[in-house]
C-alpha cells in the first residue's frame, strides 16, 4: 500500500496565513525524506481555514526544492479555469520536475458561490461541461490535438517535452468516479469530506465501468483520509481536540482557523455538541501509529485501494511532522535513492 500526503495549507490561530504556505514547503521536504509517494496541494478560495489558493504555484516551489517525491494538485478546481491555461501551467511544472507531476482535477468550487462567480462568472456552466473540459485538457497536457472539429485544434500547450503529468480525477460522489472511469484515469475518493459515506459505491462504479487507457490499462483507486498519529494515546487525544472543535464549526458551515488544543479544551460544549463529538471520535483515525496504521490497512482492504493519501491538520507544525514520521516508520516506508523518481 502506497502512502501519500494531502496538504490544505491549513490556517491556524495565532499565526498569519502566509506562514501556512511556508510550512507546506517544509512539510513536503520532510515527507519526501520519509518515503511518501506523492505530495498533493489543495485549492480553496476566500477561506479562513485554508491558505492554499494557487496549488500550481505551491507545486512549483515544492517541485523545485525536492528531488523524487511526486508533486501535484488535489486538486485544480477546473470550472474556474480554461483547459488550455491549466495545461500550460502543468506543462511548465512537468518541465521543472519531469516525471513527477500529478494533475488532480475536481469539479467542486472549493469556495462559496460568490467567490466562484468572482473567479469565473460562467462557473456554473463550466461545471456542467466538466467532462468535455477534461477531454480537452487531457489532449493539451499530453501534447496531443483536441478532437476533430475542435475550434482550437491547432493550438498547442507549451512547453512540449517527452513526459506528461499524470492526470487524476478527485471526488466525493459517484460523479467523479464515472468521469474517471470513462477517461481511464486514476480516481481518488475524498473520504475525509464524507467520513467514508459513499466511498464503497463510488469506487465500485469506478471499477465496474472503467475503460482502459493507454497510460492506465487498469483502474487505480485511492482514498484520502484525515489521520493523526502520536507517541501516546493521551497525546493523540490532546492534539485531536483541535480537529474536534473545527469539525463542529465546519458542520455548521463555519470555516475558521484551526484552534489550538488548549483553545478547544477551553470551549464550553453543549449537550448536542458532546453527542456529535462522540460520533466523530468513533469514526476518526487518531491514536498511536500502530492503531492508526491498522485502521488504514483495513480501509484500504475494504475499498481495494492501492493508495491512501493522508491529510493531517494540526495546530503545531512539529506535531504534524511527527505524525507523518510515525506513520511512515510503522508502514515501513523508505525514501528512494537520491536521483530516482518515485514513479
TrEMBL record:
One MF annotation (Gene Ontology) recorded for this entry: oxidoreductase activity, acting on paired donors, with incorporation or reduction of molecular oxygen
InterPro entries: Bact_Lucif_Oxidored, CmoO-like, Luciferase-like_dom, Luciferase-like_sf
Pfam family, one: Bac_luciferase
Residues annotated as domain Luciferase-like: 1-300
Superkingdom, natural source: Bacteria
GO cellular component: cytosol
Protein family per UniProt: To bacterial alkanal monooxygenase alpha and beta chains.
Protein name (database record): Luciferase-like monooxygenase
Amino acid at each position: 500500500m502506497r502512502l501519500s500526503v494531502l496538504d490544505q495549507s491549513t490556517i491556524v490561530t495565532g499565526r498569519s496565513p502566509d506562514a501556512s504556505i511556508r510550512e507546506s514547503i517544509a512539510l513536503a521536504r520532510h515527507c519526501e525524506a520519509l518515503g511518501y509517494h506523492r505530495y498533493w496541494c489543495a485549492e480553496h478560495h476566500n477561506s479562513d481555514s485554508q491558505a492554499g489558493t494557487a496549488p500550481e504555484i505551491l507545486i512549483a516551489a515544492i517541485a523545485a526544492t525536492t528531488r523524487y517525491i511526486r508533486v501535484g494538485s488535489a486538486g485544480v478546481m477546473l470550472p474556474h479555469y480554461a483547459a488550455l491555461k491549466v495545461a500550460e501551467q502543468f506543462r511548465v511544472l512537468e518541465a521543472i520536475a519531469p516525471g513527477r507531476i500529478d494533475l488532480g482535477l475536481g469539479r467542486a468550487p472549493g469556495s462559496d458561490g460568490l467567490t466562484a462567480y468572482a473567479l469565473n462568472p460562467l462557473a456554473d456552466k463550466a461545471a456542467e461541461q466538466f467532462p468535455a473540459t477534461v477531454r480537452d485538457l487531457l489532449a493539451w497536457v499530453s501534447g496531443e490535438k483536441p478532437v476533430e472539429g475542435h475550434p482550437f485544434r491547432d493550438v498547442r500547450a507549451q512547453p512540449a517535452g517527452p513526459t506528461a503529468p499524470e492526470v487524476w480525477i478527485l471526488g466525493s460522489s459517484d460523479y467523479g468516479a464515472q468521469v474517471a472511469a470513462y477517461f481511464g484515469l486514476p480516481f481518488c475518493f475524498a473520504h475525509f469530506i464524507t467520513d467514508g459515506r459513499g466511498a464503497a459505491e463510488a469506487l465500485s462504479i469506478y471499477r465496474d465501468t472503467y475503460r482502459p487507457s493507454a497510460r492506465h490499462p487498469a483502474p487505480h483507486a485511492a482514498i484520502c483520509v484525515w489521520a493523526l498519529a502520536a507517541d501516546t494515546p493521551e497525546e493523540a487525544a490532546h492534539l485531536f481536540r483541535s480537529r474536534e472543535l473545527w469539525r463542529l464549526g465546519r458542520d455548521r458551515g463555519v470555516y475558521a482557523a484551526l484552534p489550538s488544543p488548549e483553545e478547544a479544551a477551553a470551549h464550553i460544549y453543549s449537550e448536542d455538541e458532546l453527542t456529535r463529538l462522540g460520533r466523530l471520535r468513533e469514526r476518526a483515525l487518531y491514536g498511536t501509529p500502530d492503531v492508526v496504521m491498522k485502521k488504514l490497512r483495513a480501509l484500504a482492504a475494504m475499498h481495494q485501494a492501492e493508495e491512501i493519501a493522508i491529510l493531517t491538520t494540526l495546530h503545531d507544525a512539529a506535531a504534524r511532522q511527527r505524525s507523518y514520521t510515525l506513520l511512515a516508520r510503522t508502514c515501513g516506508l523508505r525514501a528512494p535513492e537520491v536521483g530516482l523518481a518515485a514513479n
